[in-house]
Design goal:
Layout lengths: L24 E6 L3 H10 L9 E6 L8 H10 L3 E2 L1 H4 L6 E4 L12 E3 L10 E3 L10 E3 L4 H4 E2 L2 E2 L3 E4 L2 H10 L7 E3 L3 H9 L3 H7 L7 E7 L6 H4 L3 H8 L5 E7 L1 H7 L1 H7 L1 H6 L2 E2 L6 H7 L2 E4 L3 H8 L3 E4 L12 H8 L9 H15 L1 H9 L6 H13 L22
Parallel strand pairs: 1-2, 1-4, 2-3, 4-5, 5-10, 10-11, 12-13, 12-15, 13-14, 15-16
Antiparallel strand pairs: 6-7, 8-9
Helix pairs in contact: 6-13, 7-13, 10-11, 14-17, 15-17
Length: about 400
Amino acid sequence: MADHTWVRSPIGQTDGHFATRRGTKSVLVLVPHVVAGTRLLDLLPLLEADHRVQVAFTDPEADGTWPATHDFLRAQGGTVLPWAQARRSEVDLVLAGSTRGLDDLTAPAMLIPHGGGLGQYRPWRPPGEAGRQHQPQTGLGPDQLMREGRVRADAIVLVHDREHELLAEVCPPALPAAVVAGDIALDRLIASLPHRGQYRRALGASDDEQVVVVTSTWSPRSAYGRHPDLFDRVLAALPQDGYRVVGALHPAIWSHHGAWQIRSWLAGALRTGLVLLPPEEGWRAALVAADHVIGDYGSVTGYGAAVGASILLDENPGQPLLPGTPTEVLARHAPRWDPGRPLLPQLRAAAEASDGAGLPEVVRRLLTSRPGQTGTILRRTMYRLLGIPEPTHGVPVSPVPLPKPVTT
């Protein structure tokens, strides 16, 4: 529900007489949905232990379109400003995981992708032309990055040099704002690999069990959209002993249908042994723990391949893919999941295909051009936009937290 009241704000001068720390630089984090929020939370440790910086949050969906976003923001424990108040506040830096709200703010802004990068084909159909076939569109086009001849962000974070080349082709005016920084989510995944045993134990997996992560993005063409019995099928196809099945659904599924409904739909699978992860966090820990991933064209599947899990792809007819992206490479090399055939031989074939094609190394190279450097580059960019020197302490690359499965 939208919140139209004004709150005491730690940024700007209006409530400055309440402040204990004064003269701080203000950072406003724009969270229009949970997916953007989870990625932006990866950035905030780069501002830790700096008493010169004050952070506040807001949801630029002024009408409270996604109640789950409101709950997500409240759970972080930060100051959450109503959008009407935030857009009138004095801000030194805006962090955004989407372009929503950027046009209403004048402060320097950094735009970071909330998936596996901006340079991917996405389905799009012109409004009012339902009969026409989907046309390919990237997140780097002028319709996304430009408004009235102006670049919408002062820093546009790219994960790969390939995206920089694509940007030069489709939106040259945005090139001065481009920063090839790599993928901070992947860096955190790699930093988590030494703790694989801890993640497996948190998921309830014993040393002699294999972890099978079943993941779906959103939309009717996604794995869960096409197979409502997705988790039941996988559970029924695996022996009860020796396998731990973990479910990871895109946060947009939870946001649109509601947590109660998701638990209700999956009640049978949960009783049968499904370990279901909440939308905010846990999917990365599960990927580090995973032996196998059964997934669709969502970015989680690509991250799973990057950390060494074998991949079984759900068939996705009609999805346009940009050649050379992780999703397209997986579509060429990973075997397809056939629900009508025994699953164990398919998992073995997927493992052989992954090893034979060297998929972990290939996908990592496609996900980032700056492995292990993303935090350093992002912090440097943020402080450049803030106009103050960087802290002298090192840049943290934290392992992801332990997963906390949903309880019934």
